[in-house]
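R.M. (postdoc): so does anyone remember the format we settled on? I'll just put the structure tokens first.
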């Protein structure tokens, strides 16, 4: 057995999901937050009156290199939810590595044959789903590959015609995934795709549409069904700032922001996801790690309070994805921690003032 170390972090205000506690000591034993006596610590660290946050969870990344994990951890990200991998082996090689973020993955996403996203991102032929009859085998294959959840690429039929996945097919995937206790996350970059995904009963919509503002009826239905949004505003803004050929409508980031504000007002659960990726086929490369802090800032600009934004990257992300061992600083949870200077519940930009990062009790920064 490896020698287990016990660390006490003194003089920190702890983010408890609603605000900051009075300065206190947090004790870590065997990689977990402990209710034991901090006097038995091998190492004591003065937190300097800073804020201790649960390690951040990015609910939308693409990772295929060790450096993506290293960079993420440097920025206090301790859990990365990969949202589809053209190269399954590369992602799987990044799972369960010590002193690096915990990676979960959708593996290969469900896409319609010939769909724009499939071709552009180089997903393998095994990702194609031609109709509802392919749903069960698709989910079975993901289970075999140990996917942690299912990603479905839903596109606008007005743009892709028969190459767009149908509502019936998405609904069949949802049914098969739910039977296997897997969540379904739908890529939907425009409102028509989001409507298909919602009608099919997916669990999480990712990307905030920029084509128009959702009507209130749709927003109410989303809230009523408990569908969650991971809007990836960092990615949407990046796309909107790209170059578009003449005649192609330029996406309006303002619409994405208003859509998030409407979700927020309706009580839809919103999660922080950056869409970090370095894929050459992607419309916009989002740097790993730092971009989640950008996302938190954009969520606050869209109307979330700083406390809500912090929850979107900690307790809410853990709850939606069933990660019950993390997401809050409580005895028995993983000691994935981020120490920052200042009060991010007052100024969200304070999450960038990183003083320390721990993963499963190991200090890495
Ligand atoms: Zn993505």
């Amino acid at each position: 057995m490896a020698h287990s170390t016990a660390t006490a972090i003194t003089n920190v205000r702890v983010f408890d999901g609603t605000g900051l506690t009075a300065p206190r000591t947090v004790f870590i034993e065997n990689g977990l937050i402990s209710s034991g006596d901090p006097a038995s610590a091998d190492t004591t660290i003065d937190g300097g009156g800073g804020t201790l946050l649960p390690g951040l969870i990015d609910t939308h990344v693409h990772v295929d290199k060790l450096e993506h994990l290293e960079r993420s951890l440097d920025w206090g990200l301790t859990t990365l939810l990969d949202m589809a991998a053209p190269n399954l082996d590369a992602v799987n090689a990044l799972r369960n590595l010590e002193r690096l973020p915990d990676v979960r993955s959708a593996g290969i996403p469900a896409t319609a044959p010939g769909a724009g996203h499939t071709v552009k991102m180089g997903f393998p032929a095994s990702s194609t789903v031609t109709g509802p009859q392919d749903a069960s085998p698709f989910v079975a294959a993901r289970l075999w590959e140990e996917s942690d959840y299912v990603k479905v690429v839903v596109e606008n039929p007005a743009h892709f015609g028969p190459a767009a996945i149908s509502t019936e097919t998405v609904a069949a995937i949802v049914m098969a995934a739910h039977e296997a206790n897997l969540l379904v996350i739908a890529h939907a970059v425009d409102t028509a795709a989001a409507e298909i995904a919602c009608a099919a009963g997916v669990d999480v919509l990712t990307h905030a549409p920029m084509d128009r503002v959702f009507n209130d009826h749709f927003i109410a239905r989303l809230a009523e069904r408990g569908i969650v949004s991971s809007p990836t505003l960092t990615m949407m803004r990046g796309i909107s700032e790209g170059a578009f050929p003449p005649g192609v409508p330029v996406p309006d980031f303002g619409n994405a922001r208003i859509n998030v504000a409407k979700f927020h007002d309706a009580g839809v659960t919103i999660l922080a996801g950056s869409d970090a990726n370095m894929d050459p086929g992607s419309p916009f490369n989002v740097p790993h790690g730092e971009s989640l802090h950008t996302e938190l800032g954009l969520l606050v600009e869209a109307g979330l309070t700083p406390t809500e934004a912090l929850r979107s990257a900690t307790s809410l992300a853990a709850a939606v994805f069933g990660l019950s061992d993390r997401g809050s600083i409580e005895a028995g949870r993983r000691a994935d921690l981020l120490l920052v200077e200042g009060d991010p519940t007052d100024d969200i930009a304070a999450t960038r003032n990183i003083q320390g990062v721990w993963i499963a009790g190991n200090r890495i920064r």
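R.M.: ...and that's the designed sequence above, right after the tokens. Also worth knowing: Residues 60, 62, 83, 275 surround zinc ion (CB under 6 Å). The radius of gyration is 20 Å.
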